[in-house]
Here is the input.
Amino acid sequence: MVNVCVIGAGRVGVLHTTNIMKRVPKARVVGIVDKNADLAKKVADEYGIRCFSSVEEVGEDPNVHAVVITTPTFTHHDIAVYFMERKKHVFCEKPLAITLEEAFNIKKICEKNKVKFQIGFMRRFDPAFREAKEIIENGLLGDIMSIRSITRGPGLPPEWAWDVKKSNGFLAEVNSHDFDSVRWLCGSEFEEVFAYGKVRKAIEIAEKYPDFYDTAIVNFVLKNDVIGVIEGSCPVEYGYDARVEILGTKGLLTIGDVQNFQSVLFCETTKRAIRKTVSSWPERFKEAYVLEIESFIDSILNDGEPSPGISDGIEAMKAVLAANKSIQEGRPVRIEEVG
Ligand SMILES: NC(=O)c1ccc[n+]([C@@H]2O[C@H](COP(=O)([O-])OP(=O)(O)OC[C@H]3O[C@@H](n4cnc5c(N)ncnc54)[C@H](O)[C@@H]3O)[C@@H](O)[C@H]2O)c1
Here is the structure.
């Protein structure tokens, strides 16, 4: 049994707490902590778990074997390093960190302390993404020619994510999943990106955060010559939209749909057809969020190598940083320019 403490009682902290408690029998949540003590207490009371008063109190507790870090991105480095130095295994939400310097330090400290570290790219555990990966690996799609990956969020993430300095922008906060799954599906790293980022909807936010963009398109070429595009936008309001289209020499593969697979199609007498969209990311990737934690717990219990790991977090970060640089400088940016 692995005793886990959840660090951060916000949107994702509550999601992982629920999943571990209800669906991961080899682990138990022994407590939760948040900078916002009232919030931590509220969540702890609701789930009947211990409310730790500080990160340090968690770090000093030998009963805690692993932590699930769900705090804002700009805190990931310090919190992850703190726990790894205390020999706690770490599951850390994406993106890995803000700077590559921080990311490489996380890798160094992880190796030094010989702890497990998994990053929250849960799409790799989604049944549809897995099926697509298998089709590609079995050669049924032939050689990949191009790929298009879209993620659009229904609402705005918390305010810290609007500040590009604290989040690396929506390309990191929302689209790092696309950067990771493009690498994973195509089996290659990014070579060059050319991105545009504009404010088309949330205009009032740009007045407060000048680097902010709510809509971005990233054209890219991978090292294996696959070309593609990543599209992101937030808030789109029509639903949570995560889709991938892969063109191969032997066919076309698509993952995901804006429409909820289980929903009915309602054709009105006005000849208008209505169908429910997928409303949120916790709903779309419900199974994947459970399977990624199960995989992390198994890597601890069986001394396996957690995957996706720190290197995956680093490669996604490099592509995001290059895309942000491309937006700012209005030119193509090779990945080697950022690290
Ligand atoms: N995998 C996914 O699909 C997914 C989805 C959304 C968010 N995320 C990631 O999860 C992380 C958290 O996002 P969120 O939307 O839950 O944010 P959030 O703002 O809802 O929650 C973060 C919580 O962390 C707390 N916190 C901040 N600094 C802290 C500190 N130093 N110590 C303890 N607690 C602290 C805040 O008070 C807040 O309650 C981000 O890195 C985000 O990118 C991942």
Observations:
- The pocket of nicotinamide-adenine-dinucleotide is lined by residues 7-13, 33-36, 39, 55, 70-73, 75, 93-94, 120, 122, 157-158, 173, 281 (CB under 6 Å).
- The chain has a mean pLDDT of 94.
